Each structure stands twice: as C-alpha cells, then as structure tokens.
Give the backbone structure.
Amino acid sequence: VQETTKPAIDDAISGGRAAEALADMRLLYSQSPTLANAQFVLSRLPRVSKLTRRVSARVAFLRSFTIEPVIPHLRASAGLHGVDLEIKVGDFNTYVRDMLSPASFLTEFESEIVVVAAQTRDVIPELWPESGSIRDAEMDRAAEERFEQLRAGILEVRAHGSAAVIVHNLEMPDRPAAGILDAQSPQGESALIRRFNERLAALAAETRGVYVLDYDALVARHGRLRWHDEQKWLTARMPIAADCLPVLAEEYVRFVLPLTGKTCKALVCDLDNTLWGGVIGEDGMAGIRLDSEFPGAAFRAVQRAVIDLRDRGIILAVASKNNEADALAAIDGHPGMLLKSADFAALRINWNDKARNLTEIAEELNIGIDSIAFLDDNPVERRRVRVAIPEACVIELPPDPIGYAAALRSCPAFERLTLTKDDKERGRYYAGQRRRGELARAAASLEDFYRSLEQVVEIARVTTETLARAAQLTQKTNQFNLTTRRYSEQELAGLMAESSCDVLCARVRDRYGDNGIVAIAILRMGSDRACEIDTFLMSCRVIGRTVESALIASILDYARAKGAAGVRGWFCPTAKNAPAKSFYADHCFVVCECEPEVKPAENAVCWRFDLARELPRAPEWITLERSGLGPD
Amino acid sequence: MSSPETLERIRGIVSTLFSIGIDKITPSSSPRTISAWDSMGQLTLVLELEQEFGLRITPDLAERMVSVGAVADMIDEYIDSRK
C-alpha cells in the first residue's frame, strides 16, 4: 500500500477516479489529522460528493472558550462520514446569554444541533485552582447557582425549537488547589465537580433531546496534562493542545452521526488474523492463536468488542476468504471462540471478491450498503472495499493486532443515543431470520410459507414505553416507508398529545419468536372527514411477509369506525423506498388529484380509498390483535 | 536562509490553510497580503506547525511569524537544533 499524498489525491480527482480519491482522503485524515489536512479534505470533498448519499445538519456552538480551531476538524471528519455540517459559533464566552435568549441567534440560524461547550474554569471559576483561596460554603453555593443557570439555559433552548442539545460536562482540575487533601474532602473541588456532573447526567436522562458529552472522561482518556495547553489558553483563550483538537472533533461526530441517521447497522468481519491469529487454512485448528495469553488474547479482545457491539444492536456477519468447512469448524469448535456461528446473521466464506460479498450481505440482510461497516486486518482488502463501495464504513486498523479492539470500539458509526430493548435483541431476530429464509426456500408455495410462520400482528397506540423505538423507526427506516418523515421523540410525543392524531405501532410475533415493534402508522383526522396517513412504515425485518396488508386493512377498518369517509395517503419516492412503491395500488387505493401546493414533495403522488367501498381483508394467515383500538 | 524543502512545505501549508493558490505564495507573503491570515489565522498556523513539526511555538517564536519566509526560517532553526 503506497503512502497517501495530497498530489496523488488531486491526480485521482482530475483523472476521474473519485472513489480512489475519497478512499485516500479518508486514509490521509485518519493517519494525519492536522488542520491543513482537514482544510484539504474540506476543499476536495465537493468534488467526490456524488459517490455517497449525503445528509446535512446545522450546528450551533455556544461556548466559553476559543473553539474555532476545532471546527475544520469537525467539518472534515463529519464530511468523510457523509454529513455536511454548517456551523455557527456564538460570541466568545456568551453561552449563558445565548441559551437564555435563544430566540435571537439560535432560531435565526435554525440550528438542529446545539453544542454547549463550557469548561470548569469558566462555568465555576471557584472550583478551579487558580481562583485563589475560597471558602467551602462559597464553592458549594457557586456550584449550585451555576448548575441552575445551565439547567435553565438548556431547558430554554429545548423549549424554543427541536434542536438536540449536547452539553459538555465539567472536567476535574489537573492539580487541585488542596493537593491530595482534595480527594479526602467531600467539599473539595473534585467532589463538587463530580456532583455537578451527576446532576447534569440526571437532567439529560430526564429531558428528551439533551445529551451529555463526557468531557471530563475525554480529557482524562488522553491525559489532562497532555490535553491542556496553558500557553494557548493564556495567549488565545484556547485551552486545548493541537493534537487533541481532532479528538474533540471526533467526539462531536459520535453525536452527529446518530442524530443525522448516519450510523452503521451491521458489522462484517474477516476471520484470519482478525477474529483469530493466524490462517485457519494453513495453521489448522491447533495452530491458530486465540486464548487468554499473548498473542491470542489480542484477538479475544476483538471478539469481546464485537460482542459488545452485538449487544448494542449491531447485526454481525462474516466475509472471509477460506474454505467454508474449515472456517465453520473453527468458529463453532475452537475452545477460544467467544462468538459462535449463530451470532452471525450472514456468512460469506468463499474465495470471491470481498466487495461483492459485502454487497450480497447487505442484500441478504435487507439493509443499505451504507449501513455496513467492515473489519479486516488486511490493508489491501480495506482499500479494495473503500474504492469499490465508497458508502461503506471501513474501519482503519493499526499494524499491531493489540490495537484492533480499541480501533473497533472507537468507531463513531456504531454510536447510539438511546438503546431500546429491541436493539439489544436484534442479533437474535436476525439469527432467526436466517432460519426463516431457509424455511421460505423449503416451503412449497408462498402461501404455505406465510401460513407456516404463524404470525400474530398486534396493533396498539404508541405509549411512553414504546416512544423511543417508534421515533427510532421513523428515523432509520428507508425502504418500506411511504413518506419518509423523520420524527424525534419529542415531535412524536407532540403528535400523540393531539386529539386528531393517532400514533400507532405494530408488534409482530411468529413461530421463531417476537420481532418486537416493526411498524409505525400515524393517522390524522381532518375536519372534512378525511383520514390522512401521515406516516406508514415497516422495518425491513418483516418485508415480504404480508404484514403491511394486515396493517392497512386494520387502519381502514379503524378509520371507518371513527367516522371517516375516506383515507388519503401520499407516496413520496426516495432513492430507497421502491419496496413500498406499489403499496397503495396493491391495496385498492386510487390516485387522486390534489392541489399541487399541498404536495409534501415534488414527485409525491396522492392516493385515496373511499370507505363506502368494501374494505380489503387482512390475510387469513395473520392473526390480528388490536389492543385499546376497538371501535370506540 | 531557509532550505528549499522547508519553504515548499510552509508554502503548501499556508496555501491549504488559507485557501490560496500555491503559485501566489512567495517568501514575502504575510498577514498583510493574505486576508485570511488574521489573528485566528495565526493561531491556526501555530497549531498546524506544532502538530506537523512536533515543536512548541512560544509567544516569542509566534511573534517572529510575520511572513512565509520567516516561518520557514524558524522551522529550519528548530530542525537544525534537533540534529
């Protein structure tokens, strides 16, 4: 693998090899994240942007210190992940004013994400050693007062729009004023800061759309003394050392990706020298290294990291160049293996091109190729996939396997802002899915297959317990989604509170287990006795099982019982929702002419069902349960 | 006088950081001729040089960074001092 240089990237761009240019830009910035390289990436990204689906977001920074040098890093890093950020930075150390009068700067900019970046020495100078001798009671009172101020500010920002708020917590001092005595004192600087941070975490836990960036842990992880640059602080009010700026930027990206829906759903792993040491085809079962001692321990650590991702709801798969029988024997038979073949939702153990295998895995799992992350020790394979599939997230690994687990754990594409029960059990659904697929191939006819699934569809109103999952589905579902309207938890809660709105969800059980909540419908009753389908979406997990037919039959029945004369719905085509294209036509809706100004999108088509007609019936092989939705 | 290699690297850095064509950058290019080289630009340049060359730029050194040529001289002195 040749060294990545900026002239080589420019050559690739001018030679029409955009995918190569993007691959090398990612490598360049991951190897050397300097400000000049960040600027270089930002100036070249527009020329390769057609390769990937891009999203954009507006981010406002309310800050107490000079944060400007972080911004190019943040924009470059997010840009390489497919997110174009427009960023506005508030005035120097006016974060309190900016939060408390958000109508001015924040709403004008229409920020979608607000970062409150304030540091201990500015928020509570009384708790920072340089402030001189201060009595305990004053420190305590200052901490209390400043917490209330921050809390009021955060709530004010939340009240004035739907922007998510990311707030830094407070860092501990490098060297407390009282020395080692500080750790002995329940009223010391560290104790008071810790208490402040606990209260901030509690506030975030109980306030939707508010998230804590653990700045104290971030600084500690990289070393307080290395992180701080006293000289830049005193000369330019910039407290952070040059080589820590990209680290802070990446920490912001961890929030930006889940907030903009740019996260990975699946991790595809190589086997040889990735999940175990050595090559199974050459070294054999006894020769591969995988145990609790060095060097096998490094690979066990990788497997443990993979398992933690599985428990976060990441689907696992394997792509490995091997004889399938050898590899499977090792996966299920080697005593050092923590993962088993049942943990993987798809297996591609063959001698084919890895890019082709990844594409097939995405198809098999019914997820977009841009939801795939790839873990492989071989830099040639990594580059091959980067160039062939620019949308995929290829995890860069250090030369030494001891660093693999840490590299995997720190990949921002796996970050989640909430974790639902469904997320934790996703791995099992997909393992079941592989068996369902086997059954589908065995079933003589499609109807026999549907019958054999013994599906039960339970439709209910979304409640506070299911709100997080419902919002997540609106944000993540791309394929079977008729209008692709994205809702945050608070927006959905708002709809639930409206008397004219019904926010419904469906849970699907089958003979292989509970699939959890897999569909959302939002209905809006108009004054003209027309019921509008604002949202109708279904997780790809249950596509092709006629669940949608049961749902629409149920919705039409419900709308009629509520006194509607007709049901109207839009289909808004996107690059990904072709699976839902014929949904309304398949269920006897007819195209209706609407005023062009009410169109939700340029190419949207409006469909209508007249409830005076006979209603379509739910497929006989599905058992429908409607809880709390009886004809009231 | 700075070495041609160092001068080239500094020209490249200044060109990328301040979004100016490299052919327009000479040893005498300075905050007076490059509008993006303001006080925030100076901070950005200091941070870049610290990361790129692994040196600490003290306020005294930063005061000497008045042109592309002066920056190259300063970097060369640092490189020589490490030999």
Q: What stands out?
A: Residues 46 and 59 of chain B are 10 Å apart (CA to CA). Chain B touches chain A at residues 12-13, 16-17, 19, 39-40, 43-44, 46-48, 50-52, 56, 58-59, 62 (CB under 8 Å).
